Amino acid sequence: MTQTPDSIADARRVPLPRPGPGAPQRRMAEMLRVDHAGEFAAVHIYRAQRAILGDRKGMEQITGDLTEMEGHEQVHLDRFNALLNEHKVRPTAMIPVWKIAATVLGAGTALIGEKAAHACTEAVESVIEEHYADQIKEISDRDPELAAELTQFREEELAHHDHAIAHGSREAPAYRLLSSVIKVGCKAAIKISERI
Ligand SMILES: [Fe+2]
Ligand SMILES: [Fe+2]
């Protein structure tokens, strides 16, 4: 039997390029994966901050606020869990790493103090809201329903961001350094979670 180039490729299981129709699905998978990872991390940051500050006297206000914000993040996370299932997309393989990183970030900033915890929120939420803004722009034509959901989530992230500033995030020790390090970390985590 004569071997055509196609049959040789089949026999060697050479992956053929998949341009065209697969591309939007792959992009959707990337978007859902990274959003799910971000919300997963947000839940664990707030949870860790609450665990540290909840034991301290005089921290009732911030502990209550953290509980409320963690509740919003849990709603966001539940929605992305459902979307991952619906679109048959796997979560990022980095989930166990993000759980540790988010817990260390939340606990570390809470141990520095209430204002550092707020500085963490301001930095994280500023990256997340920009990330959602980019996605909303990208999908508003092809998936207006998802764009509307992301718009609502983004508004809640902005409310967390503004709440942090109103409660003294910018008076945290080493605010600029803390904020820059957290933002760089979040942006790197976004890139990694899209791909892995
Ligand atoms: Fe969120
Ligand atoms: Fe948030």
From TrEMBL:
<comment type="function">
    <text>Catalyzes the hydroxylation of 2-nonaprenyl-3-methyl-6-methoxy-1,4-benzoquinol during ubiquinone biosynthesis.</text>
</comment>
<keyword id="KW-0472">Membrane</keyword>
<keyword id="KW-0408">Iron</keyword>
<feature type="binding site">
    <location>
        <position position="157"/>
    </location>
    <ligand>
        <name>Fe cation 1</name>
    </ligand>
</feature>
<feature type="binding site">
    <location>
        <position position="76"/>
    </location>
    <ligand>
        <name>Fe cation 1</name>
    </ligand>
</feature>
<feature type="binding site">
    <location>
        <position position="125"/>
    </location>
    <ligand>
        <name>Fe cation 2</name>
    </ligand>
</feature>
<feature type="binding site">
    <location>
        <position position="73"/>
    </location>
    <ligand>
        <name>Fe cation 2</name>
    </ligand>
</feature>
<keyword id="KW-0831">Ubiquinone biosynthesis</keyword>
<keyword id="KW-0503">Monooxygenase</keyword>
<keyword id="KW-1003">Cell membrane</keyword>
<dbReference type="InterPro" id="IPR009078">
    <property type="entry name" value="Ferritin-like_SF"/>
</dbReference>
<keyword id="KW-0560">Oxidoreductase</keyword>
<feature type="binding site">
    <location>
        <position position="157"/>
    </location>
    <ligand>
        <name>Fe cation 2</name>
    </ligand>
</feature>
<comment type="pathway">
    <text>Cofactor biosynthesis; ubiquinone biosynthesis.</text>
</comment>
<comment type="similarity">
    <text>Belongs to the COQ7 family.</text>
</comment>
<feature type="binding site">
    <location>
        <position position="39"/>
    </location>
    <ligand>
        <name>Fe cation 1</name>
    </ligand>
</feature>
<keyword id="KW-0479">Metal-binding</keyword>
<feature type="binding site">
    <location>
        <position position="160"/>
    </location>
    <ligand>
        <name>Fe cation 2</name>
    </ligand>
</feature>
<dbReference type="InterPro" id="IPR012347">
    <property type="entry name" value="Ferritin-like"/>
</dbReference>
<dbReference type="InterPro" id="IPR011566">
    <property type="entry name" value="Ubq_synth_Coq7"/>
</dbReference>
<protein>
    <recommendedName>
        <fullName>3-demethoxyubiquinol 3-hydroxylase</fullName>
        <ecNumber>1.14.99.60</ecNumber>
    </recommendedName>
</protein>
<dbReference type="Pfam" id="PF03232">
    <property type="entry name" value="COQ7"/>
</dbReference>
<feature type="binding site">
    <location>
        <position position="73"/>
    </location>
    <ligand>
        <name>Fe cation 1</name>
    </ligand>
</feature>
<feature type="region of interest" description="Disordered">
    <location>
        <begin position="1"/>
        <end position="25"/>
    </location>
</feature>
